[in-house]
Design brief:
- By secondary structure, the chain is of the alpha/beta class.
- 22% of the residues lie in helices and 35% in strands.
- The chain has three helices and nine strands, in the order E-H-E-H-E-E-E-H-E-E-E-E.
- Strands 4-3-2-5-6-7 form a six-stranded mixed β-sheet. A three-stranded antiparallel β-sheet has the order 1-9-8.
- Helix 1 crosses helix 2.
Length: 175
Amino acid sequence: MREALRREIISSLEIQARVDELGRQITHDYQGRQLVLLGVLNGAFVFAADLCRAIALDLEIDFIRVASYGTASKSSGKIRLLKEPSIELTGKDVLLVEDIVDTGTTMAWMLEHFGQSGADTVRICTLIDKTERRRVPVTAAYIGFSLDQGFLVGYGLDYGEKYRNLPAIYTLQVE
């Protein structure tokens, strides 16, 4: 199988400006609350790192690992929680930080799963909301960019665990 980057969709400057905006909005919305960011590994680690620095609040951050893609370009539909949070969530506001919401299957599962954790609220912050393949209706409280095109890589997004280190977001053509 051959793959090739096609074109830049979102520049690193556009990403940073939007992350800063999201940080300000989250800071405003969670003032006086106990916020926990749960970054979804592996894809959201870059976004979560930048986002937590853009939020001007005392917060806790942890990471979870959920698998639904493996090394494929399409979701298997089977969700597996590979790493639970190590932070107590009871009585806190949980913000799931994800790189991309695509089919909605994984995010719907996580909302239900962490909704049963005793957290006061569980909401989604995603870098990219991509609706072209949406199967399960989910709504993110915070969206970096809404896109309906192509397979995306860069800024944490991968194809077969490659391309996460790119500073911008690109479309990838897989043949």
